[in-house]
Amino acid sequence: MVSKNTICLWFDGTALDAAQFYAKTFPDSAVGAIHRAPGDYPAGKEGDVLVVEFTVMGIPCIGLNGGPGCPHSEAFSFQVATDNQAETDRLWDAIVTNGGQASACGWCKDKWGLSWQITPRALIATYTDPDRAAAKRAFEAMMQMGKIDIATIEAARRG
Q1: Which of the listed residues 68, 88, 111 is the one where a domain comes to its end?
Q2: Which tens digits make up the pLDDT trace of 5-42?
Q3: Which of 113, 116, 137, 139 is a Cys-bridge partner for 156, taking CB atoms 3.0 to 4.6 Å apart?
Q4: CA dihedral in degrees (8, 9, 12, 15; nearest 10)?
């Protein structure tokens, strides 16, 4: 990879499937080189896909098929800033309906266990509002949501 800093995501044999899903789902994403194991290793055999180079929204990543030893956790997530409700719905639904899992406050997990924050820019504007009462109302509304509903957030912000 050309980038000096690359995110390495550990998978249990499914790095290529995940990279292909991300490339299909998110703008400015693509699958790059696919590297096969030159010999047997604890999680696979010679010739298996070992490393997949890909980008997610312009961020260079590699998927390492390292086996079941290191599952993903919420300690790492991609935060995706969306511009409107249609984009929020499309990305959230793509993740959740493809074997993923909905969570709270704009968070969801894909079927590989990787966490995503699908965060409308309108939500960011509300909790950074200099009117702290408006920010609090919007924040309290968000705390009741799974997928973020921009109209509800903006209504709460207005009071």
Answers
A1: 68
A2: 999 999 999 999 999 999 999 999 999 999 999 999 99
A3: 137
A4: -90
- C-alpha separations of 78 from 48, 59, 87, 96, 139 in Å: 27, 10, 16, 15, 20
Instruction: Indicate if 83 and 97 belong to the same structural domain.
Output: yes
Structural domain for 48, as ranges: 1-68
Number of domains in the chain: 2
Residues 159 and 104 occupy one common structural domain: yes
Question: What φ, ψ does residue 115 adopt, rounded to 5°?
Answer: -90, 145
Eight-state DSSP code of residue 12? S
Residue matched to tokens 């899903």: 21
- Note the pLDDT tens digit of each residue in 48-72: 999 999 999 999 999 999 999 999 9
CB–CB of 115/96 below 8 Å? no
**Cβ pair 77, 115 in contact under 8 A:** yes
Burial of 23 (0-12, 13-18, 19+ CB in 10 A): middle
Same domain? 88 vs 105: yes
Same domain for 61 and 89?
no
Could you tell me the two tokens for 145? Answer: 């949501």
